[in-house]
Amino acid sequence: MKIFSAAQLKKADELTIKIQGITSTQLMERAASLVTNEIDKRLQNADIAIKIFCGIGNNGGDGLVIARQLIEKGYRVKVFVVNYSDNRSQDFLINYDRLKETTNDWPEYIKDEGDFPEIDPNDFVIDAIFGIGLNRPLEGWIGELVTYINQSKAFILAIDMPSGLFSDRVPAEKDCLISANFTLSFQTPKLVFFLPQTMDYVGDLQVLDIGLDRDFLSSEKTNYELINKHEARTLYKPRKSNSHKGNYGHALVIGGSYGKIGSVLLSTKAALRTGAGLVSTFIPKCGYNILQTALPEAMVITDKNEEKLTNIDHRMDPSVICFGMGAGKDPKTVEAFKELLQKTEKPMLIDADGLNMISENQELLEFLPKKSLLTPHPKELQRLIGDWNDDFEKIEKVQEFTQSHDLVLVLKGSHTFVFGEGHVYINNSGNPGMATAGSGDVLSGIIAGLISQQYSSLAAAILGVYLHGISGDIVAENRSYQALISGDIVENMGAAFQALFAD
Ligand SMILES: NC(=O)C1=CN([C@@H]2O[C@H](COP(=O)(O)OP(=O)(O)OC[C@H]3O[C@@H](n4cnc5c(N)ncnc54)[C@H](OP(=O)(O)O)[C@@H]3O)[C@@H](O)[C@H]2O)[C@@H](O)CC1
Ligand SMILES: Nc1ncnc2c1ncn2[C@@H]1O[C@H](COP(=O)(O)OP(=O)(O)O)[C@@H](O)[C@H]1O
Ligand SMILES: [K+]
Fold first, then answer.
1. pTM
2. So what's the pLDDT on residue 291?
3. What are φ and ψ of residue 184, in 5° steps?
4. Residue ranges of the YjeF N-terminal domain (predicted)?
5. How confident is the model over 62-104, as pLDDT tens digits?
């Protein structure tokens, strides 16, 4: 699903109104009905006090329509107009009159702190104060109102966006913004819903299709895309029945050091479970018995050194090399890595200590084969490209870095971001149970397994990250977040592939 800016969404609204021959009031009615239905589906006519805080722009207009529709369905609704200016939007005014025709319980105006209403923790609060039109931080009593609503402990549903959250920048630390339990957003999600600095304000997210013009949505260009099942499925390559293991490539996993052979084992197993035809592992000697015993399906070659990598003499022609997990940063290993980079032409996947070695020896960057994949977590990224001021600057810096070196970069996190060919793909699968030792090693193996089956680096990264998350979701459902360990993610890759095609 594409992610658009506020300006693009406004353009989509205007175009839709023109092409569909409707008024903006009708579009607002359509959008609000979808919200009302979602609320009604969940509340099931429960006798809960619903308090709707409406701004005076179109987000507030949405709130007024939702209020009217809920009242018509018999809900107990109280509307508060957050009167931050006299500049009411046309659709706010129209819907204000319509609401007054529906109920005798007219909206109350909030003009300063003295007007803040009581909010009970059992109330259901709807935040329709600001949406994508917010253009400066909330000041004075408006900011205090937002803090007051947050502190009420009532359930908060945000319409389109939590008020105070900008669509194109990170708020300052002192800024006030709604911390929603749930956000119902119109047509496409906003980028800030997925950034580490802003995602916590959104709560659970649902995107409502309000029927904006299809042609515009499909032709309008954007650098950001959210990856759900639909997008992942389109990347999947079915296996031919008339095929053999040679058609699915040979992945070579290189890494490990004394005490860290498990990481290579996890990556190797993940590459096999993802469908690589052959998988070999190159490790220090101490890992030989461990690997051969734990994973008879893999072939094992060892370094001359007992405890670390010193001379990577693999004499193979693998489809892809996955390097770095558990490798350590011994100077001899750095030297061996440099030689490996110099003699490898196909794209490589570099993870963990491989990334740290590059960070500390930036001259290695120039030997990276084109389209190679780097899979840092935020700390590894920072070592690689330096600090950033906020998440927007981070995205800019990573874009510049990946484009100047012709790389694909997988920035791991609760929403993993894949950067490639100037675009940013934001993963929407996975869960906090995956914050556990070795789950990154598993991801590297999955992506290497896909590249070995002739997926491009970018497609392998996007699909691999999605499948990794889905596998983790399947484990969490059966086992809880806490009990999830990374080996479970490998074991459930089969279920993850099947889930791609389940409804
Ligand atoms: N047909 C459509 O377009 C549809 C739109 N839809 C809905 O419209 C929403 C966007 O509505 P919107 O553009 O009216 O902006 P909104 O978020 O209500 O607020 C803007 C107002 O706030 C003001 N302002 C800004 N910052 C401020 C601050 N810090 N402190 C104080 N004031 C501040 C700013 O005024 P200014 O003072 O800058 O002139 C302006 O008056 C969108 O999120 C969705 O919910 C849906 O119904 C679908 C159909
Ligand atoms: N809260 C979370 N939600 C979803 N995925 C997560 C979460 N926390 C971690 N992950 C995923 O788990 C993996 C952790 O990788 P990494 O930090 O490299 O771990 P390790 O070094 O232990 O292998 C990444 O793929 C990341 O996206
Ligand atoms: K809002």
1. 0.95
2. 97
3. -105, 115
4. 9-218
5. 999 999 999 999 999 999 999 999 999 999 999 999 999 999 9
Domain that holds residue 273: 244-500
Give the pLDDT mean for 129-137: 96
Same domain, 67 and 194: yes
Distance (angstroms) between ligand 3 centre and the Cα of 63 equals: 9
Q: Are residues 84 and 136 in the same domain?
A: yes
Establish if 229 belongs to a structural domain.
Answer: no
Domain co-membership, 455 together with 417 = yes
Helix ranges restricted to H, 229-377: 229-235, 261-274, 288-294, 331-343, 352-360
Alpha-carbon distance of 28 to 58, in angstroms, equals: 8
Residues 394 and 183: their CA atoms lie apart, in Å, by 25
Side chain identity at residue 480, one-letter code:
S
Residue 34 has pLDDT above 90, yes or no: yes
CA atoms within 13 A on the CB side of 96: 20
Whether ligand 2 lies within 6 angstroms of the CB of 458 is answered as no
Asked if the structure places residue 15 within a domain, the reply is no
Q: Is 59 domain-assigned?
A: yes
CATH number at residue 442: 3.40.1190.20
For position 236, what pLDDT does the model report?
Answer: 97
Query: What type of residue sits at position 97?
Result: D
196 and 266: one domain? no
Q: How far apart are CA 254 and CA 12, in angstroms?
A: 49
Contact indicator for 251, 278 with CB cutoff of 8 Å: yes
Closest Cα partner for 287 from 273, 274, 298, 272?
298
Q: What is the mean pLDDT of residues 440-445?
A: 98
Atom 33 in ligand 1: which residue has the minimum CA distance?
A: 134
With 0-12 CB in 10 A as exposed, 13-18 as middle and 19+ as buried, what is 45? exposed
| Average per-residue pLDDT for the chain | 97
Q: Is residue 503 predicted with pLDDT exceeding 90? A: no
- Taking CA atoms only, the protein residue closest to ligand 2 atom 14 is 440
pLDDT classification of 46: cutoffs 50, 70, 90 = very high
- How many domains are contained in the chain? 2
